[in-house]
Structures are given as structure tokens and as C-alpha cells.
Design a protein that fits this description.
about 55% helix, hpI Integrase, Chain A, DNA-binding, DNA integration, 16 helices, 3 domains, DNA polymerase, domain 1, about 375 residues, three-stranded antiparallel beta sheet, Site-specific integrase
């Protein structure tokens, strides 16, 4: 695949498009180099090709090892990321790396130091949350980890920076949605989306887990649902009669795996936007009719599920931690604030003590029978 187009009248023979992205291909001393230039803009692709080819030629022909540029490191990391990261993580990292281009495109890897990271932090926190900044730094760290594995740098300066106290995020207070407001919103939602909201309330699933739910994850015989959560961590939750009834109302689109779908069986690409649209329409209508409506987030269904689970004494705080897929029990313990002292005592001790007593009894019976 040869030349494509010209830039300022000069033919560029070693650049070609692939699925809308520009790629480089050339040989240096008999070795072929082929890699993505990570851009849809030809002029930018040409500049990246020129810089990367010059670096490779200098190293191969003259033994000159120049400091690795940030852009060339990202280009090299790209193939590693495709092979070693999940599709969703890789996509998110690319978004973050695009946000950091203003700060890094003209830098070498050696230029990335705590001072530059502080500059990035200050600028980004003007326009994004701490959580978004931490995701951006995680993406940056992934590239630098790869650079270390290639011996381009000796250390990754983001590691200490990402754990600094200044990046500790202040968690928003938990707010439970009001039942009347929930009824108003769900009444205005399309049938399948309303069913998804109801499923979220009785399952405690995260939004991404719910709208990524496949029929293959449901096991009616074992009465279980296998969930793949954050960082591909797997957990199993009960498949209740209420859940089965909701799923039974969803016509399964032939050839598509999703439980909750739209259009021609497609997965919801942006359910948060859809939820926001419905919420705004309901709020506007409520304002016109002088009706009380308290807006809430889709994630608040998960909060209400957790509090209801503990209030009704269905299980302990530790069982709830497993059902929600929390890494730390401290996250789950935030829901204790919504309980009465008696409910809190039962959540913390009642069920677990009972379970421990049953386990001790079973152990004693086993020893006796053995």
C-alpha cells in the first residue's frame, strides 16, 4: 500500500489509512516497521511518522539513542494496550490520553516529572473532577509502565503522585430517591427502560453491569446471575422471582445477547443520557403543574437497594458487600447511617453471629461423625 495524497506538494509514501486511523510502514536496514500513528489527521500523522522514523534510523544506523518522545511511546504502547487491556479500559485510556495531549505531545519521557504532573493536576482540576483526573493519570501511568519495560525510563513518576493526599476524592453524600419521584420518572420512561430501572432497584447492579447484562449470564435452574463488574471482577447474585418476571417481559432479539436493548437489538450506548433526558422532561412537566419532583441519579437505585436490604434484615453488611461487589467493607458501611440502632446491630452482628454458630455446629458434627 503506497502513497496516499500529498502534504504541501510533497508525496508521503509510507503512510496509509486503516479503519480511519493513519498507520506507518517503512523499512530500515531490512527490518520492516509498521505501527498505528493514533490519529485521523493526516498532517499530524506525517509529523509523527517523520519523528519516529528519524529516531529509528538514528538508533539503527548510528547507534544514537535519543530520549524517547511521549508521542512515540504512545504509538508503541498502542499495540501493547490492544493485546493486554480490556476493550472498555483501552477505550477509556485513549480518551484520557487525548485529554493530556496539550501537556505531553511536545515532551520526551524524561520531561515527565513531578513538576509537570503538578501542572497537569492544576489545569485539569479546573475542568474535571478528581475521579476523572485519577483516571487520566492511570492511563498516563500505563504508558510509562510500558516505557519502563522497554528500558526507556528508569522510574514511573506517577506512582507516588497518584496516591498523594491531594488526590483523595471527597465522596458525594448518599441520597435516596423518593418513591413518588421514582414513580413519576418511571411512568414517563419507555417500557424496556422502565423495566431496566426496576431491575436495578431489586438487584443493586451498577448501570454498566445492568445494560451490559446478557442472557447467557442468567441461570434460571441455579437461580443465579453472574456479574462481571469493575476491573473484570466476577460475582454471583441471586436470580429472584421478581428478576425473572422482568426478564420474561423482554423479547429476546434474535442474534443479539442483551437483556435490555433498544433499536434493532443494540446495547444501550449511553443509558445515562437517556435517563437524563427522561428526568429533564419529568422535571419540566412537574414544574409546570406545580408538582414536587426530586431529581435523582440512576446510581441511586443501587443505594436504595442496599439500604432496603439492610433495613429488611435480608443479610449482614458483609453479605451485602459481596452482592454489591465492593472491594472494601468501608464503602458498604456507609449504608449503616440509614439504619436504626437495632437494624444496625443486626446488620453488623446478628446474621454473621448466626452464620458462625451454624458453621461451628457443622464442624463439631463433622468431627464427631468422623
Amino acid at each position: 500500500m503506497g502513497a496516499i495524497g500529498q502534504s504541501e506538494g510533497i508525496q508521503v509514501p509510507n503512510i496509509y489509512p486503516r479503519n480511519g486511523i493513519w498507520w506507518a510502514r517503512f523499512k530500515v536496514q531490512g527490518t520492516e516497521y509498521r505501527f498505528s500513528l493514533l490519529t485521523r489527521v493526516r498532517a499530524l500523522a506525517e509529523r509523527r511518522l517523520k519523528a519516529e522514523r528519524a529516531r529509528i534510523e538514528n538508533e539503527a544506523c548510528f547507534g544514537i539513542i535519543a530520549p524517547q518522545s511521549w508521542q512515540s511511546a504512545v504509538v508503541a504502547w498502542n499495540e501493547h494496550g490492544v493485546e493486554n487491556l480490556s476493550a472498555s479500559t483501552f477505550k477509556r485510556y485513549l480518551v484520557s490520553l487525548a485529554q493530556l495531549r496539550t501537556f505531553l505531545d511536545d515532551k520526551t519521557l524524561n520531561d515527565i516529572n513531578p513538576e509537570l504532573l503538578r501542572t497537569i493536576r492544576k489545569a485539569r482540576l479546573r475542568v474535571c473532577t478528581v475521579a476523572t483526573l485519577k483516571r487520566d493519570l492511570t492511563a498516563l501511568s500505563s504508558v510509562l509502565d510500558y516505557a519502563m519495560s522497554e528500558n526507556w525510563i528508569d522510574s514511573n513518576p506517577t506512582l507516588a503522585f497518584r496516591t498523594a493526599r491531594i488526590l483523595q476524592e471527597k465522596r458525594d453524600p448518599i441520597c435516596l430517591p423518593e418513591r413518588d419521584s421514582m414513580r413519576m420518572l418511571e411512568k414517563a420512561a419507555p417500557d424496556r427502560f422502565r423495566d431496566a430501572c426496576e431491575f436495578a432497584l431489586i438487584s443493586g447492579l451498577r448501570q454498566a453491569e445492568l445494560f451490559g447484562l446478557k442472557h447467557s449470564q442468567l441461570d434460571p435452574l441455579d437461580e443465579s446471575v453472574t456479574i462481571v463488574g469493575k476491573r473484570n471482577k466476577m460475582r454471583v447474585i441471586p436470580y429472584t422471582r421478581q428478576m425473572k418476571a422482568i426478564v420474561a417481559r423482554q423479547a429476546q432479539f434474535i442474534g443479539k445477547p442483551w437483556v435490555f436493548w433498544h433499536g434493532t437489538g443494540e446495547r444501550w450506548g449511553s443509558p445515562a443520557s437517556r435517563f437524563g433526558d427522561i428526568k429533564r422532561r419529568v422535571a419540566q412537566k412537574a414544574s409546570q403543574s406545580k408538582t414536587d419532583f426530586e431529581p435523582y441519579r440512576f446510581h441511586d437505585y443501587r443505594h436504595l437497594y442496599a439500604v432496603t436490604y439492610l433495613r429488611e434484615g435480608r443479610g449482614s453488611i458483609y453479605t451485602l458487600q459481596g452482592l454489591l461487589g465492593h472491594d472494601s467493607i468501608k464503602t458498604t458501611e456507609l449504608y449503616l447511617e440509614f439504619l436504626t440502632p437495632a437494624q444496625k446491630l443486626k446488620a453488623m452482628h446478628g446474621v454473621t453471629q448466626s452464620g458462625a454458630q451454624e458453621q461451628r455446629s457443622a464442624t463439631k458434627r463433622g468431627i464427631k461423625n468422623g
